[in-house]
Amino acid sequence: MTITAPTPGSPPTPAAPAPMPDGRHSLAQKTRRLLGSAIPYLLAVVAAFAVTAVIILLLGHDPFKAFQAVLTTSFKTPNGIVETFHKWTPITLLALAFAIPLAAGRFNIGGEGQLILGATGAVAVGITLSDLPAFVLLPLTLIAGTVAGSLWAGIAAWLMQRFKVNEILSTVLLNFVSFQLLDYVASEVWPNVGAGFPATEYIGKGAELPTIGKPPMHYGVLLALLVAIAVAVWMRRSVGGFELKAVGSNERAAKVHGIRAGKVAVTSMLVAGALAGLAGAIEVTGVHERMLEGIQSNFLLLGIIVGLIARGSVVAVPFVAFGIAVLEVGASSMQRAAQVPVELVLITEGLILLFLLASDVISGRIKLRRKRSNG
Amino acid sequence: MSEPQAGADRAPTPLLRMTGIRKEFGPVVALDGVDFTVGAREIHGLLGGNGAGKTTLMNVLYGLYAADGGTVEIDGVPVTIGSPRDAIKAGVGMVHQSFLQVDTFTVTENVVLGTENSADAAAKARVVELSQRFGLAVDPDRKVEDLPVGVRQRVEILKALYRGAKILVLDEPTTNLTPQEVDALFSSMKAIVDEGMSVILITHKIRETMAVCGAMTVMRDGRRVATFQGGTTTADELAASMVGDSSSVGDPRNSSKAAVILGGAEVGQTVLDTPDVQQSVRAVAERIEIAGMAGGTAAIAPCSLAIRRGEIVGIAGVAGNGQVELAEALTGVRELVAGSFELDGVQLAGRPTAGWLSAGVVYVPEDRQRDGILPDASITENLMLGGQRERARGGLIDWARARQEAVQAIADYSVRTPSAATAAGQLSGGNIQRVILARAFARRPKLLVLHNPTRGLDIASTSFVFDRIRAAAAEGCAVVVISEDLDEVIALADRLSVIYSGALVAERPRGAIDPYEVGRLMMGVAA
Fold this sequence. Notes:
The complex is a heterodimer. Chain A has helices at residues 27-58, 63-76, 78-103, 111-128, 134-163, 167-189, 220-237, 239-249, 251-256, 261-288, 299-309, 317-338, 343-374; strands at 211-212, 217-218. Chain A is mainly alpha-helical. In chain A, strands 1-2 form a two-stranded antiparallel sheet. In chain A, helix 7 (220-237) crosses helix 8 (239-249). The longest helix of chain A has 32 residues, at 27-58. Chain B has four domains: 12-233, Rossmann fold, CATH 3.40.50; 235-265, no CATH class; 269-360 and 445-527, P-loop containing nucleotide triphosphate hydrolases (Rossmann fold, 3-Layer(aba) Sandwich), CATH 3.40.50.300; 374-435, no CATH class. Chain B is 35% helix and 24% strand. Chain B contains 20 helices and 20 strands. In chain B, helix 9 (235-243) crosses helix 10 (252-261). The longest helix of chain B has 16 residues, at 179-194. Chain B is globular, with a radius of gyration of 24 Å.
């Protein structure tokens, strides 16, 4: 395994101004440090765009036109803004679903399966109980999705804890099972025959998320924001968050000091599944009003990219997710404006991550050289 | 004109001459213009605490560090040593404290590893020849993973001799050996010297240095303090020059205290303050049975142990005789197969580790990196580890207060670190141990189990840890010190047990401890 659970904050270098004895920094020091750690990010983004530009040129298109479309679509129209937030919601939740087990040294690659199960749970309640009033039905629908996602992740967690089955393997394989399940539910259980592709019936009106403004933005965005804040506080301040980090940092030492590492790891997977399940339920109740084939989109991949770019920091996840959501929303208008295929955006996102990892290697080398020349 | 010749007549060219060696680590001057000379056929003791720079000096000689200044001459010829390869070519061999061996290889395979030779019959014959010539008994066909520490050390020495070392550097070779093994090592060293080579013995133990060394160099704070020829100094004088407090030279109390810590004085002569011991029994482990790592076979024969308040029980033994298993069983890290464990009348057997912790059992593990710290968490977070549930209010941890306490702990235990936010994994071994000890003592333990607590610490820190352990005992804490360093156990223990092959084989009260008898017990020879 080459990916390690990242640590927030970089170790102080000898050249840095001396921090206060408890390790906290003055505002000026903090700003300088923030700027210092932002440099590799900036360079990685610039380098990724530069390489993408070369590819676009080679394809015979105009890179500036393409970039203009990608970067401005989200902000040009109210529609763009809403669409960006709608994309941001599942990306953030899936990135958290990846980052939380990562903090305990576990890899949840099953976000899309958990999302699909969340969607399944949501439509099950939203369709079968469609006559209930909204103030009962909507919470029930969201809870059903959250619980279903958590249970799905629980299968992998149980296999991991009971039989030591590698959780990467089990979560990935459970994704494939979930695709079949989606197909079955959408074509056999509650099929919408007129849709022409596998999709369920619509959920009851009472299960739909209320919206705000025009064009309408669903309240799932706000819910995801609250969840992201709660997760950040929990990770940084709570006993549970500390134990999670302890297990990720050194499982053996955590056990020696009374932390039940297995329980902590299982809990992290269950929480992750719940978040991915919530994302599925929000997609159903806020965006599609039903479940359909491909509802998982490429949110799993984007979530992992966001989680890794944020280096596992749950505080950074929502911000990185916003940047990625902007690129995703811009992708289709780029295709229209510059005839560049949408897939190129995914290449750019991958390149950002790649260059960021490369910058780790390079800065590691620089530090090593400095250390060597110092002694 | 005749001067150089006259000089050569009086003092023959030394085998090794290091002149003005300087080494800086960032702002820290580790070696400040050190001159160091070793004659031919000489066992030269290099003494000093861990911060003194003796290991650094030898790492420069062995090419592990590039010096910032100074010259090295071997046999009067200036040499440039940029890597261990150069050092080996120049005839320098070094045996480190931690061995670099491939566990699954045989002795012969390990010896030839890294040379151009293969582990064939000729290589094996050479290993046998060397081991017989120098009294380094090993079986060339055994896998090193099956060998005890003392024998693995012989393999390391054979490695250096096989590569044609003229100068053999041994870094703290006696720490984990029984007195008998130490004697065997010293006679091998004498055999090596008789063949025309020289040995440099890095150590902080005065007694053994005086017994074996023809010359002794004392280092302190990166400087050479003094060089004594054999028989021209006393243990107290050496101890005083190592500790560096010139005022203490005349004060027998101070220097003999240092000498005790350094293993220079005989135990029987030492009078230590006995704490006001309350006699009620605190921890009772009755016929406990402990399973090994694999869970199947018993690692420890059924054993019983009762420890009173304020008592320090020492457990001596050669590494790998069940110390880790015993320590983990006494601290609830490892489940007991059978038996009972009571602390102040409370039954702890069967409870999870956290239950033992909250009952007042504190463990200072041997393997600091693996069992003791969260490497990429801050010092503050590491000090919190284990206490997070007791310290939290409503599930939330007050990190602002924890940071303040961490700053205080760093000052109290003189942890050398840029700040409390520094990741524990970036600290040196000694500083990691200070963090672990700060955490352990802050919990005000009822039962404190320490395994090799001062390994790798310098003299001042060792003395500091000893004081802390005695202070904890004086406050009524029951202490178990498990150590492979016999001198450490003897210095601390009110009562000493020996662990051999998973069984506690003997018990001796303070004052009735004969190191050689203990050594025999440690090797399983009935006393």
